[in-house]
Design a protein that fits this description.
mainly alpha; 2 domains; Protein YOP1; TB2_DP1_HVA22; transmembrane; membrane bending activity; transmembrane helix
């Protein structure tokens, strides 16, 4: 049983090393120190997780996790011919933007949630990991059904969408006035 876990761990580390081959600084660091790239990656991730967990620059680090890798992956997606990854990252940015907007208006409540930034970081990673496709799940279940009624059939030009934007804005304003 231990051998099975050891093989899985070795496979995991090999996968990380293979993925890090695309980053020249990681290769240079491995060459200079003799320590595997995967060890640096796992150690760095653990260090950041501990800082976020104990809220040492938790908000900053959590936002960096939510912005840096997705921004890089979005740039790479825009530079490739395939459009499937474009859709994944557009979906991520829509869901992440809505989440951050909601967070901004509720920060006085979120302050009281223990380990909030740790959970936010896990949530952001869940949103963008291709294995979970969390952003796609939330977009399909919540965002699309909520916003679709505001898009008229056949609207494809930004000038045509102006009416839909005004409708959404007035509905939101009316909703705020009722409260």
């Amino acid at each position: 049983m231990v051998d099975q876990y050891q093989k899985q761990l070795e496979t995991f580390l090999t996968t990380i090393d293979r993925e890090l081959e695309a980053f020249p600084p990681a290769k240079e660091l491995e060459k200079a120190t003799g320590v595997k790239k995967s060890y640096f990656a796992i150690g760095g991730a653990a260090f950041v997780a501990i800082l976020i967990f104990f809220n040492i620059a938790g908000q900053l680090l959590s936002n960096l996790v939510g912005f840096l890798y997705p921004a890089w992956a979005s740039f790479v997606a825009m530079e490739t011919a395939s459009t499937s990854d474009d859709k994944q990252w557009l979906t991520y940015w829509i869901v992440f933007a809505i989440f951050n907007l909601a967070e901004h208006f509720n920060d006085f409540l979120l302050y009281w949630i223990p380990f909030y930034f740790f959970f936010k970081t896990i949530f952001a990673v869940w949103l963008y990991l291709p294995q979970s496709r969390g952003a796609e799940v939330l977009y399909t279940k919540f965002v699309k059904p909520t916003l679709s009624p505001y898009i008229a059939k056949g609207q494809s030009h930004p000038a045509q969408a102006k009416g839909a934007q005004s409708s959404v804005a007035s509905d939101v304003a009316n909703g705020l006035k009722k409260d």
